[in-house]
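Structure ticket #2291
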Amino acid sequence: MVSAVGQPRLMAIYEQIFALYGRTVAQVLLTRADLADRRRYLNARNTLTALIKHNILPIINENDTVATEEIRVGDNDNLSALVANVVEADLLALLTDQPGLFTADPRTNPDARLVEEVTEAEIPCAIWEAADGNGSQLGTGGMVTKLQAADLARRSGTVVVIANGMDPNVLVRLVNGERLGTRFTPAISTLESRKRYILSGRLAPGQIMVNKGAASALKRGGSLLPVGVTQVSGEFERGDTVRVIDINGRELARGLSAYSSADLARLCGHHSDEIESLLGYDYGDEAIHRNDLVLL
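Resolution: structure written out below.
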């Protein structure tokens, strides 16, 4: 109830402040369930991508009015790591009241040293131990949740920095590449992370046949457009992983379909600018976007 009352007031403040800089803001409320379900994940990603494309700044928070214990993320640090994965962010900045992560609690141990960079594939146990209990009295998280978020985000190919939010122009400086706080290098590239997800995910009982032109475009790194689709077989839903085959039945690729099998069957051979008139809506110009496609 309190969240329901507070959210519009919070957004009103964001709107007033960003209006000073001529920026439009939007509110996006998420739960863990929104990011665990593949179709809802895609819907969230499409919404965030569209906002960014139109130069609108999304203000993201957990949907506390409907979230239960089973679907709560619980803290904004881990929520930010999940969002970084959704939008395939290059950089995740976790701001705190400390200059970064220390080898011990700097408020009680004068010998504590700043950990400037973490490059190991697995974050060392000593760092986890140092983060335990090193938190602010504000918010639901602490240094441990920031470390959890950093570990999650770097496994999706994102650079993570834990820095002091009170440092002047801290975000601008981080975006410009200045070394501040504690930097975590990615454990895997974003592309490799996506490929692993597609190849290891459940394969839907369906496939998409493409013509020679589309096959050539895929091999050159292009997306699969409806005009290149000649036949759809089996049943699958939007967001499912499907096989892409050529006219000889040879598997060319696997990818996440932007449309269900029923919708894609109606779009076969049609140009992308016809999608909305044929379906009454559209989820983008591509049947499978190149970022959601793995060539075999």
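Closing remark: Confidence is low (pLDDT under 50) at residues 134-140.
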